Amino acid sequence: MPAARAQAQSAPCAKAVELVNAAVAMSGGSLDAATSTALSHRLRVPADLAQGEEKRVITAYADALIDEIITDLDPYTDELNRFCGTGS
To answer: Domain of life of the organism in this record (predicted)?
Structure first.
């Protein structure tokens, strides 16, 4: 018996994860400034469509991509995966 019921991912979260994965794959795993900026802009649509915590984490990830002070995306990626991951 599972400990918790599986939850379906929202459409905005699914799109955000799809966009991030595509950008990472196309960049060879290292996002340059141009790719980060483009991805940040693309993530605004799913962020605008999301609600609650999903909206917060997608927006935070998009903001982190273009914030020159942030040098480690891992905490933002972890949050995005936690709220928007498929659970598999």
So the answer is: Bacteria
Would you list the domain boundaries of the chain?
11-83
Euclidean distance between CA atoms 49 and 17, whole angstroms: 14
Please give the Cα distance from 9 to 57 (Å, whole number).
14
Start-to-end CA span in the chain (Å): 17
Its pTM stands at 0.86
Tens digit of pLDDT at every position of the chain (88 positions) = 334 444 557 999 999 999 999 999 998 888 899 999 999 999 999 999 999 999 999 999 999 999 999 989 999 999 999 988 765 4
Contacts of 45 (CB under 8 A, 6+ apart): 15
